[in-house]
Amino acid sequence: MANPLVETKLYLPRPRRSLVTRPRLSGRLSRGSDARLILISAPAGFGKTTLLTAWLAAMDTETRSVAWLSLDESDRQPATFWTYVITALQTAVPGIGADALTLLQSAQPPIETILAAVLNELAATPNAIDLVLDDYHLVDGPDLRAGMVFLLEHLPPHVHLVISSRADPLLPLARLRARGELVEVRAADLRFTPDEVAAYLNDVIGLDLTAQDIDALEGRTEGWIAALQLAALSMQGRTDIGAFIAGFAGDDRYIVDYLVEEVLQRQTQQVRTFLLRTCLLDRLNGALCDAVTGEPGGKATLESLDRANLFLVPLDDNRHWYRYHHLFADMLQAHLSDERADEVIELHRRASQWYDQNGQPSPAVRHAVAAGDIERAADLVELAIPALQRNRQEATIRGWLDAIPYEVVRMRPVLAVGLIGALMAGNECEGIEGRLRDAERWLEPAIRESKVPQARSEEMVVVDEQELTRLPGVIETYWAALALVGGDTSATLRHAQLAIDRAADEDHVVRASASALSGLALWGRGDLEAAHRAYSACVEGLLRAGHLSDVLGCSITLADIRITQGRLGEALRTFERALQLAQEARTVLRGTADMHVGVSQIACERGELQGSNPISPAQPGAGRAHRAAAEPVPLAGRDGPNPGISGRPGGRTHPVRRGAAGLRGRLLPERAASPGAAGTRAGSATPMRRSP
Question: Is the pTM of this model over 0.85?
């Protein structure tokens, strides 16, 4: 099961019960109505999220909407990040960006294409919208910069981007500042003033401190809110508050160490043990905590900690999922390492096991790696790969490459080939030949003699036996794809035929993929009739495999070939057959909008403008979004056949887009999976559309 979106990331946190009103800061944020970007940038523990939630809670919801996204490190991949951003916008404007999401999850065109469609829809919305990205420092990096800059530069006037971060983001802040399009709130602004310190400690917490005590604490913490919260916890129930404040000194790190020790020592042993054993978790619920601590009652303990304001942040309205305040979690982890270092590995192992049993492979792998159990992590990755490929999660697979040493991977041919697919999905072809040969060596006797591996080395490790039987055909498919990227059509055709010969008769996905690769190579040679036959075989295989969405994609190429030959009637019948399949499906299939675009283009060519129907009623506007992303370019600089739509030269380009990026999502072999998506997936050489 691939990782679903975590809906709790889209929940706007409730304002804290222990809240000091800060009109000076709320007023500054409200003045951002003329700004493109509102930036709250400060170190940990300065109350960035608390300020945001209080400000947003006071807004007029009839004229202003909020799209909230809490980010974490797992959102660094651009596809994941932008999927979450668009989904967050849908919480403010239902249905917005639906076509862009489909495009993002299938063709993966340049991010500017996707954002342009979303921005156009935002421009048509009547209410003001605040898109809030909380904890942006966890994802900030070069991979996201271009898209974020494009978004900022083209935001409609009534849409504002709000970022909270521990560090300045990689955005053109100086330019925005010079234009008056940036509102900033920084650490110096967020620090509690003496009056706010007094309001918090005396009015909210009820400590009844003297003005002298307030001044001493404010001076020693410099208004650092997290330190004040920890100090308040330590002072509750004390009779020697004056002495405590007098001895409260040191830089931030020492203050934190001292106060955490004070807080932990004042908890019961049961609560203290619970905190230390669960601090390694990014998110917490009762069942997960029970599994990790080995004790029942996790749900009740979390609810108790929540009521006690012990740095526990609810992630949903039902109080089912929580997380620790990041700074508090860091402190707990430091003490865990000092006091219970011998438990750390076992805690990670238990967390990994729970996540695995609950269908969440990414945290299962992460905790297995943290436990130092690389072999178990490799097992989990191998078993997760087919479903992740099926759901277009190659970026997740790619992220695991750095965690699992290659000497472990190369002993596992199924895992190795799955990771090869992830690399090619990201257009990382360097070193692929060596990886393919390493995987191939385990299967040499079988490759020479039969379709199914017969020999088994004692050193070879396999967890997914079903995938092992597919490797001879899958590996040849990758060789064919690699050759096609390099412009070697002869090698493409040779390896594609070997893939068909070595695939099991029932492995329709690999056989269809090889046929599609042959079709692309033949089109590149100008043999359109042979290319059409190869793609027809691909469509037949995909139909047998039940991959209707990819049948639609390949039907576009079949129609493209006929259009290139000037046989518009046959192209139209191809589109109509595919549309019939789409209508028979219970859900709207990816590619349906492209069918309507193709029909409308043929109608336009024939001069039948009243009869064109470019957009499916089920997907308003989708045709435009798909067409914008389907511009073809030559493969590796080699032009393919280029006759015009009526057979005139100069009207068309080769159907394969730039290098491996043009193969994205079309060739990754997978078990009973949808073979379209990003990189090189054996199953759907989903075709490139012609130039409009």
Answer: no
